[in-house]
Amino acid sequence: LAQADTNIRQRQNALLAINKAIKCNTKNTSSYIKFRGKLYVNMKIYRMALIDLRNTLDIHPDDGESYLYLGLAYHGIGNKRDACRALEKAVDLQFMEANKYRLKFCH
């Protein structure tokens, strides 16, 4: 239980730090936004993750890792169709880590 509390605090601290970095650095924020989207997925804050990951993909449409996390966020809110589309796109972009989730969620 103590380990779980530590992990939660670490994620919350990371979220505070990344929000500060985005606020302070008005240029080249896409990598920070992507990191925050991944962090939101890990924290199960899926709707916020969707916003950040979609914004990342607007700038970097060939980012397979972002499609993986987008798929996980869609899965987290129960949207199987869009989850599977995002995971398929990640696999198409050769981000093969997405394949295990695609096989688990989409078949």
A few lines on this structure:
Helices cover 79% and strands 0% of the residues. By secondary structure, the chain is mainly α. The longest helix is centred in the N-terminal third of the chain and has 23 residues, at 2-24.
Shape: globular
Which percent band covers the strand fraction? under 5%
Uncertain segments of ≥5 residues (pLDDT<50)? none
Count of DSSP H/I helices:
6
Give Rg in angstroms.
Answer: 14 Å
Give average pLDDT, whole number: 91
Q: Helical percent range?
A: over 70%
What's the helix-strand series? HHHHHH
Q: How far from one another are the termini? A: 34 Å
- Write down how many β-strands occur, each being a DSSP E stretch of 2 or more residues: 0
Coarse structural class: mainly alpha
Q: What can be said about the biggest beta sheet?
A: none
Task: Explain the overall architecture.
The chain has 107 residues and is mostly helical. It has six helices and no strands. Helix 2 packs antiparallel against helix 3 and helix 3 packs antiparallel against helix 4. It is globular, with a radius of gyration of 14 Å.
